[in-house]
Amino acid sequence: MLEHKQEVNRKFSHCSFFQKNSKGQTGETITWVIATIVIIGILLLFIYASTLMGKAKNIVGGEVNAGLPKTSLVLSEKTALAHQITQNKDKGVIDSIIKEYDK
Amino acid sequence: MLIKNKRGDKILSLYWFAILIIIAGGIFAMVYVYYGFPYDVRDIENRLLINAVADCVSYTGRINQEIISSGEFYQNASLDKCNLIFTSPEWEEEQYYVKVDFYRINDLNNSLRTLTKGNLNWAPQCEIQKEKESKNLVQCSTKAFYSLDDKDNQYIIKILGIVRKSEKNVRT
Question: Has the ipTM of the complex gone over 0.90?
Fold first, then answer.
């Protein structure tokens, strides 16, 4: 009886079908686990990116075209008019002073 | 063998549900986080404020004659006639501050006259903000332009505009 059992075990242990199936299952499981980790990783990356994008949601004047005159345009028009009245020779100097003040 | 397969299917279904919930939760989190941050529109407000003040102080290249005449600044000159309304039922305190400095072009260190309007409490926060690079305090902007009085004396006019409204524009 024991001999017969050992014989059966020996035969099946050499059977390539069972060996391949076991390896395949392990490989598939690892694939699923890695895929899950990748999915979670990508999600976390996107959540982080959306946090950064959310923080940077500043609407800066120059970027908006809502029909509003740009400050620099309004003020430079005023400066240009004053230059025109005086026929100013120091236009370059005054313009550089104004540029320094603009922050 | 058949029982084992059924169990595997159940586990796989549960796995798919778990993945579905994780992805849905992730998308929800992304949208929530992105739209949770308010839009900061204070730069535009400040731009409009400075434009309005500049139009009040000077037009057609000359300084308003209610502020200066014959090279002399009026003692009672102010920004009150600029129709700026800084109070709002939404806020207990005024959320704006504006300061206009007049300089001779040959002396840019000493202001000849300063006109202010709004809540003075916000002015020091501009300096603090420079050091700490914190946007939560106030939004400050300085602009300058060149103008003349009725005697063709030349001036550089510097306008400092401050908008607070941090609670509605910046997540603290």
Answer: no
